[in-house]
Amino acid sequence: MNIALLTSEIAVVILALLIIVFDLLMPRQEARRSLGYFAVCGLLGILVYTFNQHGTSATVYHGFFVVDKFALFFKQLFIVATILTLLFSFDYIEGLTHNTGEFYALLLLSLVGMMVMASANDLLTVFVGLELMTIIFYILVGFDLRSIKSSEAGTKYLILGSAASAVLLYGMSWVYGFTGTIVLSQIAAHLTASPAMLLGLGLMLAGFCFKLSIVPFHMWAPDVYEGAPIPVTAMLAMASKAAGVAVLLRVFLVAFAGLQAYWLTIVSLLAGLSMIVGIIVAIWQTNTKRMLAYSSVAQAGYILSGLLAADAAGVKGMLFYAVLYMVANVGAFAVTTAVNNQCGSDKIDDLSGLSQKSPFLAVVMTVSLLSMAGLPPMAGFVGKMYIFMAITDKGYFWIAMLGLVMSMVSVYYYMLVVRVMYSKEAKNEQEFTASVSLRIVALISLIATLFIGIYPGPLAELANAAARSLW
Amino acid sequence: MVDFPLLTAILLTPIWGILVLSFMPREADKTIKMISAVTMAIALGLTLYAYWAYDVSLGGLQYIENVPWITELGVSYALGVDGISLPLLLLTMLVGFSTIFVSWNVEKRSKEFFIQLLLLVVGAIGTFVSQDLFIFLLFYELGIIPSYIMVVVWGSSERVSKEYAAMKLTIYLLLGSAFMLAGVIALYVNAFPAGMRTFSMQVLAQAHTMGNLSEDVQVFTFFLLLLGFGSTLSMWPFYSWAPDGYAAAPTGVSMLHAGVLKKIGGYGLIRIGLLVLPLGAKFWAPFIALFAVVNVLYAAFVTIAQKDLKYIVGYSSISHMGYILIGFAALNVISIDGAIANMFAHGIMSALFFAMIGLVYDKTNTRQVLSLGGLAHQMPRVATGFMLAGMSSLGLPGLAGFVPEFTSFVGAFKVYPLFTLLAISGIVFTALYILRVLANVLFGPRRAEFDTCRDASGVELVSLVLLGTVLVVVGVFPQLLMGMVNSGMEPVMALLVKLHVTPTLLGGVFQ
C-alpha cells in the first residue's frame, strides 16, 4: 500500500491543525492575519509538491483512492482557488471580528474534502469527500454571526444540503444493492439497464446536480450565495462546483458509461434548462452576489453540457472551462470584496463610478464578466468553443446553438454591471482603497483570463492529458 | 521587404498605442490625442504602402504570414490580404485615422475614450487581415464591447436614450455573432474529419471540392452565417439597431460603425459564405436579393420621413447596404466586383457624412433638419463636405459612389431584372432625400442665429480633406479601386463558373 499517494491531503490536514493550534496559542487580541499568510505559504508549498506526483497513476486502499492526471488537475485547481480566495479575503475576514483563525483552518479542511473527491474511485470515498466539504461549508456559510442573512443561509444550506446528500446516498445504496460493489470500475462491469439500477442512477444524478446547482436543483444557490461571507461564496462558486464536476465525471464516465443511452438525454435537458433559467433570471438581480449566483447556475449548465460528448474532447472542454471559470470568478469576487469593504453592502449599484475611482478594478470586473459571457479575447470564448465543438461532433448541435445564443443574452446583464461602473457617477467622494494582496489577486485573474484566451494551448494540453487518464 | 511582417505591423501599431495610452496619466489630454494620432498615422502609412506595393498583376493573397497557434484545434495566426480585403483594410485605416481628429474635442475621460477607439480600430483591422476563421471571430467581437461603453459614456441621446440604443446595438450584434459562431462550428466540424480540422479560410474553401460539405450542410450553415453577417450588415429584418445606435454614438463611433464595421458583414458573406459554402450561397441568393430590395426601398422611404440628420444617414446607409446585397446575390463577377467596391465607397462616404454632422452638431447644437438652414453661408467648408458625401451617396459620376453602384447594377440586372429595376428606383428616392437635406441644411436664406458659428478649421479639416479627397480621387480614377478589387476575383470567378452549371433547389429557379 502506497500511503505516499496521500501526502498532499495529509499535508493540508496538518496545515489546518497547525493553524488551529496556533490560533489557540496566540493572544486573543492579536490579529489573525499572520495565520492567513501561513496558510497561503503552506498551500504554495503543497502546490509545488503536487507537481511531484505528475505522471503517477496509482491507486491505494484496494482501489478506493486513485491518483492520476485527472485527480491531480483538479487538486491543483482547488489549491490555487483556495490560495487566491485566501489572499483577497484577509480584510473581509478580519472585519468579522471573531474566530478568524478558525476560518482559515475550516477553509483548508473543506479543501481536503475537495481533494478527496477528486481522487475518489468508489462511491463511499465520493460520499466521504463530499460530506467533508459540504459540512464545513454549512459552518462557513453561517460564519458571519452578526448577519441574520448569513445564519439563515447557513440553515437553509444545511437543510437542503442534507436532503440532497440523503438522496445521493439513497441512490448509491440502490446501485450497490444491484451491482454488489461500490468500486467504480467494478460497477461498470455489472451494469444492467434494470429499473432499479436506473433509479439509483437518477437519484445520484439529482444529488450531484444539487451540488452543481443545476436547474431544477438550484433553488438554494442564490440565497446561500447572497448570505454567505464573500470569500465563502467565492469558494462555493468555484471550487465546490469544480469538485462536483470532478466526481460527476468520474462516476458517470467510469462507472455508468454503459448506460449512456439513458442519462445523456436527461443531462442534455438539465444542461439546457440551466443555461436558460440561470441567464434569464439573472437579468432581474440587483445584488452582485445573487447575480453571480444565477450566472453560476448558467455556467454550471455550460460545464455540464460538455458531458454530452462523453469522450476525451468533451471532458477536456469541461476541465478547461472549470479553470477559466475559477479564474474569472476570482476576479469578480475580489472586486466585489473590495467594494464591500468600502460600502458594506454588495448591491450592483455600489459599483457606481468604479471606473473613476479604481480603473484597474473596473477593468478586472469587466474582463471577468465578459469572460463568463464568452466574449473573445477572454478565456471564456475558447472554453465555450472547446465544449461546443466537442458536443457538435456528437450531434448535439442544438445545445451548442442554445448555449451560444444564451451566452450572448447573458451579455445583457453583464453589460448592466459594466454600465454602472462606467457611466454612473460615484456615490461619494471617498477615496477607494484595496489591499495589496487583493490587487495582486485581481491582477492574476486579469492576466490569466486574457492569457488563457489568447494563448490557450498549454492549458488545453494539460486538460487533454488529464481527460485522457479517465479512459 | 518580403520578410517584413507588414500586416502584423499594421495590426500591432494601434495595439502599441493602446499600451502606451494605458500608462499615460489621465490629465495628459493633449499628449493622449497626439499619441493616438501618431499611431494611426503610422498604421495608415503602412497600409498605404501595402496598397501601393500590392502586385495587382499577380493577384491572390499577399503579405502572407502563418504561425501555428492552437495546433490541436488547427488554429493558426494566419494573415494575408487580397483584392477583396485590401480595399476594406485601407477603408478602415482612412476612417480610423479621421475619427481621431473628429474626436479631438473629447475632453471627458479622454484617455479611456481613445483607448477604446483604438480597440475598435484594431478589431476592424484584424477581421480584414485574418485568414483564419477563429482569429476573424476573435477580432470581430473585440469591437462590440468598446462600442457599448463608448455609446453609454460619450454618446448623446435625442430620440431614444443612449443606454437603450447601446444595449440594442450590443444585443443585435452579439446575437448575430452567436449565429455566426454556431455556423462556424458547424462548418468546422463538418468540413474535415477529426484530426484534420482547421480554421484556415483557404483550406476550408477547398472542403466543398472534396465533397465533404453536402448541399444540406452548406445550406444550413450558410443560413446561420447569413443571420450573423446579415445583422452586422443591417440586412432587413435585422437592421433596427443601426439607426438608433449611430444616432446615439459619439461621432467617431458612428463613423467607424457605419463606415467600417458594417462592411464586415458583406466581407464575411463573400469570404466565408460564397467561397467556402458556394452551394449554400446559391441556395439563399434569391432570398438575399429579395431582402436587398426591401432594404433599398423600405429604408429609403423611412429615410425620407426622418428629421434628425444622424437618422437620415443611418437609414440611408441601410438603404445602401441593399445595393451591396443585391450585388452579392447576383453571384457574378461584375456584380460582386461592384459590391466590394461599393463597400469601400459607401464607407468613405458615410464616414464623411457623420463627420460633417458631428461638426454641425458641435457648432449649432442641433441635428434637426428643420431647425437648420443656410449653413453654407457661415460654414462653406462643412457645406463642401456635405455636398461631396451627398453627391457620392446619390451616385453622381466623378465621385466614388458612381462606378461601384453602376457595376453592381449591371451585374445584377442579368440575373434579377425585376429586383434590380426596383433597387435602381431606390436611387431616385436617395436623390430625393439627399437633395432635400442639402437644400434645407446648407442652402436657403442666411439664418442670423448661426452667424456665431465658425467654419471648420484646424484639426477639424483633417477628415474633410482626407475623406473628401479619397471620394474625388476614386471617383475620377476608379481603376485605382476597381483594378485592386478585380485582382481578388480570380478564385471567385472559377467558383462562379462552376456554380452556374450546378443546379440547386431554389438557386436554380431564378437563373
Please explain how this structure is put together.
- Chain A is mainly α.
- Chain A has 19 helices and two strands.
- Chain A is 76% helix and 1% strand.
- In chain A, a hairpin with a 4-residue loop joins strand 1 and strand 2 (65-67).
- Chain A is globular.
- Chain B is built from 21 helices and two strands.
- Chain B has helices at 6-22, 29-53, 85-102, 110-129, 133-142, 144-154, 162-191, 201-207, 215-232, 241-248, 251-276, 278-305, 309-329, 333-364, 375-378, 380-393, 402-413, 417-441, 460-476, 479-487, 490-501, and strands at residues 62-70, 75-81.
- The A-B interface holds A 355-356, 359, 366, 370, 375-377, 381-382, 385-386, 388-389, 392-393, 397, 400-401, 404-405, 407-409, 411-412, 415, 418-419, 422-423, 455-457, 460-461, 464 and B 69-73, 109, 112, 134, 137-139, 141-142, 144-145, 148-149, 152-153, 163, 167, 170-171, 174-175, 177-179, 181-182, 185-186, 188-189, 194.
Quick summary:
The complex is a heterodimer of chains A (471) and B (511). Chain A contains 19 helices and 2 strands.
What class do helices, strands and sheet pairing of chain A give? mainly alpha
Largest sheet of chain B at a glance? 2 strands, antiparallel
The helicity of chain B comes to: over 70%
From the spread of the alpha carbons, the general shape of chain A counts as globular
Radius of gyration of chain A over alpha carbons?
21 Å
Largest sheet of chain A, in brief, is:
2 strands, antiparallel
Task: Show unreliable segments of chain B.
Answer: none
Low-confidence stretches of chain A: none
Give the H and E element order of chain B. Answer: HHEEHHHHHHHHHHHHHHHHHHH
- Number of helical stretches of at least 4 residues of chain B: 21
Mean of all residue-level pLDDT scores of chain B: 89
Bin the strand percentage of chain B.
Answer: under 5%
Average residue-wise pLDDT of chain A:
91
Oligomerization state: heterodimer
